[in-house]
Design a protein that fits this description.
The structure holds two protein chains of two kinds.
Chain A (H helix, E strand, L loop, with lengths): L1 H31 L6 H19 L3 H24 L7 H23 L14 E4 L2 E4 H23 L1 H11 L1 H6 L4 H27 L8 H14 L4 H20 L6 H15 L14
Antiparallel strand pairs in A: 1-2
Chain B lengths: L1 H24 L12 E8 L6 H20 L3 E3 L2 E11 L4 H13 L5 E3 L4 H14 L3 E3 L19 E3 L4 H14 L5 E7 L3 H13 L3 E8 L7 H9 L4 E3 L4 H13 L6 E3 L6 H7 L7 E5 L3 H4 L3 H14 L5 H20 L4 H9 L4 E3 L2 E5 L5 E2 L2 E7 L2 E8 L1
Parallel strand pairs in B: 1-3, 1-4, 4-5, 5-6, 7-8, 7-9, 9-10, 10-11
Antiparallel strand pairs in B: 2-3, 11-15, 12-13, 13-14, 15-16
Helix pairs in contact in B: 1-3, 2-12, 3-4, 5-6, 8-9, 12-13
The chains are: A mainly alpha, B alpha/beta.
Chain lengths: 292, 395
């Protein structure tokens, strides 16, 4: 039983990381129907920013977290401006391939500039384990869960209650009609990228702190798994991405705990295939019939 | 997933390119003749990508060796001294790139020998191209048993290595775990994304006299090992064997210690890097053991190794890592082969390499056996608070 609770904690903390990343995928997809494959690499940029800001300027944890969100947001907006905006009227596949190109550019550019070796992330918060009847929870795991929860609630608030959020939802329903009623398409899309990428930047710092290891290719696998999480939850749906993230985290932990660790990635992709076959819109996805 | 597709397209394109390149190489006599006043040595190395850390350490060892040799006038070919010209190319830890780098080095640059690659996967990928060109390659650290062998059981004529092979390393670790650490119930947690990890896990399990109660796998780039470690904890294992590289093993050590697993963790030369303790956290890196061909405390007993360690410290301002030492030795055994054969032609170098015997290298006395493996002493180092606390030489 003790093992079961420990595995549940393991699964939830892994899941909260996927959930944070999945939110960025789902937001961008919801607005401009683009799968931003460079999202995982923005998370890597956030981690590197945290690494340098803590080592060079001695930022504390909160400063590093907030500044990496700003850096993440800025890089998201820049990428959108230079790579995706010129292609907004182009076929969707063109934008998708560009996103893969941006992802390669960031991974290899960072490898070239900073080297590809794994570095240890400065431990600004000392890890402390709390023991609940044999089940260990570390303060950093609690911090990740709490930060993820706060950011998700804040996101929900922005989308549902603010003017910008209303604009975002309007653009996601019909971009042309939104423009007709005076919503600036460029501003709204930039804002979406900024928010999604800020979440990725925050995730970068949190994960750097949690695992104590960062490298330029760190965004690859989590990026793809977060994408799977977004699809499972229903791509375009914010609560769906959260649920999807936790589901994938728990699934991976389950597969490993029964001794099938060699197949943990395969299990995640298998779920993707199954979901696409039986529930193409995902768990919470809106199944909109397209009128012809 | 989208990366896999791109990779396979790149592989197809590179294969086509490599095939086109090879058709020109077959003209003329076998091998590449040495011309000019230089000895050209190619380096096909993992300077970026997953194994970039090792590759760069090896590059430093290679450059140190080459500069030393050139300072002393170069390699004596017959009765003339020729300087070494290094041509260094990055294979990006990708098998397709490794194959095309090997084709470029042999066809365009006309090198007469190659140092590298560091990993078994990239090394195996270059074998067809160097064999066609009849250019020998010495890998400093490809430890998979099959690396120097053909499918039919014959030795690859142009593939050599400056390290021992995995069966030896895995069996030594198994004996040490059973006899010295008195562990009877062990768990094996191996890197199944490399031939290195799977090979070592197999040889350990084969040689271990106690019981292997759990065998689980991870792949390069993984960061979360909590689930597997929790399952090991519930099985009350006496020790954990983790054949893999420092970037993942460092995290395994950190997460194991934080999960309250205090048993010895035994690993391989892939862990022999100061970065291991940085990633694991020095306070977690205790009761850690690993097999290594080069241990600074053992090596300081030999004059050759002492000279290397101080030269390395002077040039790079750090302690010489294992991989630099192996790469340094790789260059020197090529020099030895050229001087013994009195020729820098590629086929002659290959013949010379096969005959290396009791060469006094920095990683011990090196003899190339009939399967082109270097046989040399093995050491086990132990870590306490992130520092090497003890080192045991095992013959």
């Amino acid at each position: 039983m003790q093992t079961f609770w420990q595995q549940l904690i393991n699964g939830l903390s892994l899941g909260s990381i996927y959930a944070l990343l999945a939110l960025g995928y789902t937001m961008v997809y919801g607005i401009i129907k683009l799968i931003n494959f460079a999202h995982g690499d923005i998370y890597m940029l956030g981690a590197f920013w945290g690494y340098y800001s803590i080592n060079l300027w001695h930022f504390n944890f909160l400063e590093a977290l907030l500044s990496s969100m700003i850096v993440g947001a800025a890089s998201g907006v820049i990428i959108e401006y230079f790579a995706y905006r010129p292609l907004r009227q182009a076929p969707r596949i063109t934008a998708l391939i560009t996103a893969i190109g941006v992802s390669f550019f960031l991974e290899n550019g960072m490898s070239y500039l900073f080297g590809s070796t794994a570095r240890d992330f400065p431990q600004v918060i000392k890890q402390v384990n709390y023991n609940f009847g044999g089940v260990l929870i570390s303060n950093i795991q609690i911090l990740i869960l709490a930060t993820a929860a706060i950011l998700m609630v804040a996101l929900q608030f922005i989308i549902k209650k603010t003017k910008m959020g209303t604009a975002m939802r309007a653009v996601s329903v019909d971009a042309d009609a939104a423009e007709l009623v005076g919503i600036s398409l460029n501003k709204t899309i930039s804002f979406t990228f900024a928010i999604g990428s800020a979440l990725a930047g925050a995730a970068g710092v949190l994960i750097g702190l949690y695992y104590n290891s960062i490298d330029p290719l760190m965004g690859m696998t989590p990026g793809i798994k977060a994408f799977v999480a977004a699809v499972v939850g229903g791509i375009g749906s914010v609560p769906g991405a959260t649920i999807g993230g936790f589901l994938i985290g728990l699934l991976e932990t389950l597969v490993q705990s029964v001794g099938l660790s060699a197949y943990k990635d395969a299990a995640v992709y298998l779920v993707l295939i199954v979901i696409l076959l039986i529930l193409p819109a995902g768990i919470l996805g809106k199944n909109i019939k397209e009128k012809v | 997933m989208h990366k896999k597709i791109i990779n396979s397209i790149a592989t197809i394109m590179l294969t086509v390119g490599a095939l086109a390149g090879c058709s020109t190489a077959s003209s003329g006599s076998k091998g590449i003749q040495a011309t000019g006043n230089n000895v050209k040595i190619g380096v096909n190395m993992e300077l970026s990508g997953g194994a970039g850390g090792y590759g760069n350490q090896q590059k430093q060892g290679i450059q140190l060796a080459v500069d030393e040799i050139n300072q002393h006038g170069g390699i004596k070919v017959g009765n003339k001294k020729k300087k070494i010209k290094l041509i260094i190319k990055d294979n990006k830890t990708a098998t397709s790139t490794s194959a095309s780098v090997a084709a470029q080095l042999t066809n365009n640059d006309k090198v007469t020998s190659i140092v590298g690659p560091a990993t078994t996967n990239a090394g195996t990928a270059q074998t067809p191209n160097i064999t066609k060109a009849a250019v020998p390659a010495v890998s400093p650290s490809a430890t998979d048993p099959g690396f120097t062998m053909q499918k039919n059981g014959k030795v690859q004529p142009y593939v050599f290595r400056a390290c021992y092979q995995n069966n030896f390393q895995g069996a030594t670790a198994a004996k040490f775990t059973y006899n010295n650490l008195n562990a009877r119930k062990v768990a094996v947690f191996y890197d199944n994304s490399t031939d290195y990890g799977t090979g070592l896990a197999k040889s350990f399990k084969h040689a271990f006299k106690g019981k292997v109660v759990a065998s689980q796998a991870f792949s390069a780039g993984d960061k979360d090992f909590n689930a597997v470690l929790t399952s090991f904890k519930s099985k009350n294992v006496d020790a954990i064997y983790v054949p893999g590289y420092y970037s993942e093993v460092g995290l395994i050590i950190k997460q194991a210690r934080q999960a309250g697993i205090k048993v010895p963790i035994i690993g391989t030369d892939g862990m022999a890097d100061p970065k291991l303790a940085q990633i694991a956290g020095a306070q977690n890196a205790s009761n850690i053991y690993y097999t290594t061909p080069f241990s600074i405390s053992q090596a300081s007993k030999s004059a050759t190794a002492r000279k290397f360690i101080s030269a390395y410290q002077k040039r790079y301002h750090q302690k010489a890592p294992t991989f630099s030492a192996l790469a340094y030795d790789s260059v020197y055994i090529i020099k030895e082969a050229i001087e013994k054969e009195k020729s820098a032609d590629s086929t002659k170098i290959a013949a010379g390499l096969a005959k290396i015997k009791n060469y006094d290298g920095v990683t011990g006395s090196i003899t190339i056996d009939k399967h082109h493996n270097a046989t040399k002493p093995i050491a086990i180092e132990s870590l306490k608070n992130g520092k090497v606390a003890n080192s045991i030489a095992i013959k």
